[in-house]
Amino acid sequence: MIVCLRTVVVPVEWRTRYLAWIEAGRAIREAHGILAELVVEPSDGRGQTVVITVWPSHEVFDAWIATPERDALTDFEVHRAVEYRPIIRYDLAGGYVNVPGLVAVLPTDETRQEWS
């Protein structure tokens, strides 16, 4: 399993649409093997936004990068409005995920609708 980190610069006026774009692309990314995608922002509003994705393997991630579906997903105004830094790949060496705990605190559908 691999984890990819990428810092992004999201203009303030595009933040809501960017988060909605991430959510809207979920089904196509999952169909190509993504296990998770998280957008994290500094709590104090200073620093960089980081996009974290989790993939089963380097091969699955590389196959996704090469698909026409990915190209189509990135051909949106909101994607072009964001500045992307290089992707850094990490091999998952250990750790855990508390899935029930995450489900209990994840944003609701109502919260996600506020992003769009």
Explain how this protein is built.
The chain has 116 residues and is α+β, with helices and mostly antiparallel strands. It has a single domain (2-115), classed as Alpha-Beta Plaits (2-Layer Sandwich), CATH 3.30.70.100. 41% of the residues lie in helices and 22% in strands. It contains seven helices and five strands. The chain has helices at residues 15-24, 26-31, 58-65, 68-73, 77-80, 99-105, 109-115, and strands at residues 2-9, 36-40, 49-55, 83-84, 88-91. Strands 1, 2, 3, 4 and 5 form a five-stranded antiparallel β-sheet that branches. A hairpin with an 8-residue loop joins strand 2 (36-40) and strand 3 (49-55). Helix 1 (15-24) packs across helix 7. The relative contact order is 0.26. The model is unreliable at 111-116 (pLDDT under 50).
Helix-strand layout with pairing:
Elements: E1 2-9, H1 15-24, H2 26-31, E2 36-40, E3 49-55, H3 58-65, H4 68-73, H5 77-80, E4 83-84, E5 88-91, H6 99-105, H7 109-115
Antiparallel strand pairs: 1-3, 1-4, 1-5, 2-3
